[in-house]
């Protein structure tokens, strides 16, 4: 059975205030064309269909166009909600849409209920695990505690229990939206950290033939059977080196996996350039980036006058201008930035407590701080979903 694995469309998202709606429309048309040209048997969309819980009308129209195109191609599609989606909104009309072959999986309670397809070698069960916010789904899934690994493990227990009751030789595919250990993040994914632990081990998914992951925007192979497709478009300059693709996966008679990457259309290349302004304006080696979307980092010790206008004269598609003057190691601004680099909100808060009173927080105070950060993030998630 041939599968096409994609995720993280983020319909409605812009790139540094540049609308990507046209590029997203081109990708969706490309997706439907690829389904036809490669004789795909099922499409897997592993979450973050939209960029916001309440997407703009233009993004909803793109989604409508996509599902009509997939339905007309006659290829079943399994689609889950991600952490950017409002699960309840995306799932509206799921029962009716399913009649057209578009299987929306947005309710955590349905984790153990698959969509089943059959080929010449038997049945394949497709399980959709929407993004699972631990504090909100712990009780519904019967998880031991409110953590990403705990709720995903509870969901996978339901998957394995259902599989155990199916005919021997039934192959299985799981769609999930999560941060799995070993994956490499970029700057454009929303943080899903809970209690300082966001990543779950790939072993959570043991026992199934293929795991189609969403959330991280770079295409990645964690194991032969556990893969991220990545986003079809770049949504931050941290993705400059990404090659945007989808996975074309062949699932063999006994669950064997072969996979190849299908390239996605690129609206415009990305480039990061760095150096003193005059050097960037004169360096002939940078000519290749003159038509790219550019992030320029200026290292001049003093901010140059009219820097954006001057850099845009050579690189007209410059979208981001960063000022990062080269400083001596003893410069207090350098040491402060180094202290903050790579530290979590929790760690920064604990450092602040230690600074103002001469001693760090005890374990009880750390728990209070951790709970406060978690409550704020969960409250934001709930409010977004209720809008």
UniProtKB/TrEMBL annotation:
GO molecular function: ATP binding; exonuclease activity
Pfam families associated with the record: Metallophos, SbcD_C
Keyword Mitochondrion part of the UniProt annotation: no
Domain annotation Nuclease SbcCD subunit D C-terminal: ranges: 267-355
Domain of life of the organism encoding this protein: Bacteria
Keyword ATP-binding tagged: yes
Calcineurin-like phosphoesterase domain sequence ranges: 1-218
Keywords for this protein: ATP-binding, DNA recombination, DNA replication, Endonuclease, Exonuclease, Hydrolase, Nuclease, Nucleotide-binding
Protein function: SbcCD cleaves DNA hairpin structures. These structures can inhibit DNA replication and are intermediates in certain DNA recombination reactions. The complex acts as a 3'->5' double strand exonuclease that can open hairpins. It also has a 5' single-strand endonuclease activity.
Subunit relationships: Heterodimer of SbcC and SbcD.
Family classification: Belongs to the SbcD family.
Protein name according to UniProt: Nuclease SbcCD subunit D
